[in-house]
Amino acid sequence: MTIQIGEKLPDATLYEFIHKESEGCSLGPNAFKVADLVANKKIAILALPGAYTPTCSAKHLPGFVQHAAEFKAKGVDEIWCISVNDAFVMGAWGQSQGADGVVRMMADGSAEFTQKIGMELELTARGLGLRSQRYSMLVENGVVKQINLDPAGAFENSTAEKLLSQL
């Protein structure tokens, strides 16, 4: 069942490739519990079928990078990009898209989070395996406040501009 507005995000682990070592975060892939990351924060999430794919690279992620300051001005603490890819791919893609320090590139390599919220997209017949549907979401203290889901193959509801208009 797909997660609904008013529901709490499930327990899951996401991975982020850390490019600069800091206290508590080593260089390379680091595991993060979703519940720990969302506590007392307002987070804008964009999720998409895959890193380096055409629409994701040309439109979806760039919109959130471009409008990051506007999200911050409206009280958003962090922007996350979630995809069913590994942390190495998400880290490299984020760097190539100018997302470092702007959007957290969160890998859901085994689709744990994606399946728990009911947003999986079966693309095995197209050689892509299990992926995430394209959506944007606003989460406050772990509770879903907005969801903008796109029909398969479309990019119309989950834009940065639409989520910004809902803040």
From TrEMBL:
- Does the keyword Nucleotidyltransferase belong to this entry? no
Give the enzyme's main class according to its UniProt record, as a single word: oxidoreductase
What is the top-level taxon of the source organism? Answer: Bacteria
- Which EC number applies? 1.11.1.27
A Pfam family recorded for this sequence: Redoxin
The cross-references to Gene3D superfamilies, in alphabetical order and at most eight, read: Glutaredoxin
User: Where's the Thioredoxin domain?
Assistant: 3-167
Question: Which reaction is recorded as catalysed by this protein?
Answer: a hydroperoxide + 2 glutathione = an alcohol + glutathione disulfide + H2O
Q: CDD domains attached here?
A: PRX5_like (cd03013)
* Matching PROSITE patterns: THIOREDOXIN_2
Q: Keywords for this entry? A: Antioxidant, Oxidoreductase, Peroxidase, Redox-active center
As for what it does, the entry says: Thiol-specific peroxidase that catalyzes the reduction of hydrogen peroxide and organic hydroperoxides to water and alcohols, respectively. Plays a role in cell protection against oxidative stress by detoxifying peroxides.
Q: Which family does it belong to?
A: Belongs to the peroxiredoxin family. Prx5 subfamily.
**Official protein name in the record:** Glutathione-dependent peroxiredoxin
Organism, scientific name = Limnobacter litoralis
Lineage, uppermost ranks = Bacteria, Pseudomonadati, Pseudomonadota, Betaproteobacteria, Burkholderiales
